[in-house]
Amino acid sequence: MLAVQQPPSTTPEQHSASLPDIPSNAPQHCPGTESELAGKSDACNGCANQEICASSTKPKGPDPALPFIRERMADVKHKILVLSGKGGVGKSTFTAQLAWAFASDETTQTGVLDLDICGPSIPTILGLANEQVHSSSSGWSPVYAQPNLAAISVGFLLPSAKDAVMWRGPKKNGLIAQFLKDVDWGYLDYMLVDTPPGTSDEHLSVVQYLKESGIDGAVLVTTPQEVALQDVRREIDFCRKVGIPILGLVENMSGFVCPGCKTESKIFKPTTGGAKRLAEETNVELLGSVPLDPRIGKSADYGVSFLDDYPDSPATTAYLDIIDRIKEILEERKK
Asked: Between 254 and 260, where is the model more confident?
């Protein structure tokens, strides 16, 4: 008979602590989240994490895409995620206007990576709705809004803007990896990553793929009302759990600016103190507040830069102040 030495008896807590890929609330014989048996082993039955592990899009073992992603990202100086937690807060519009602002300096090379796979709006907002991606020996070529502003989006790959993208996690994960490893961005000063609402597949995938290359930080966009702030609190928690530095909060639609008289009134009232109170509670910097100017929506529909078309708007001043502060934070962190 073959004698098999049994490992020393351990408590579930000791077992989990000894293996970094095992959650603290896992059963004693958990195979680990990195294992091929994650969510499928007999030990997983009854575990609160079973469904998550079984459907996880995280590759088991080293992902073959990582070396190629690291090589591509070596030429990207700053990588910034734009997160919201809540849908409908103007995150994609904010991302696009931030990109226009960065690219207003002709010496600054800017790229927008649209990870909102099921609701890609970046092509429309940047005036690129009818463009397509072209491939060459060096990879996919991003689509250019101007010589120093490029974008990539699943919207460029669809036969029609009306086509729905109905993908589960693994297929989303594959496209995100392809965008990061196959798109020939060249040198970029700033890459802005526009993400969908929530803290799900797309967020986990981009964090995983850019872990080695490094993410400079995240800008969290909210609106003043509590229903939006609730989700942003979860987004802050997500960033802290996965180790993404938070550059700051932006309160979008913080008031309505009349295009005629330029006076401002509150449309979405900050019943619990708005982004300012949230920033104080969570020790996150409030980068600024952008008032609701109806011409922002018009600029997004026509795919033009609101900052260029309406330089006298209070919203333009707010955008420019926010971008200046982001640049300051990035420079301070380099020291």
From this structure: 254
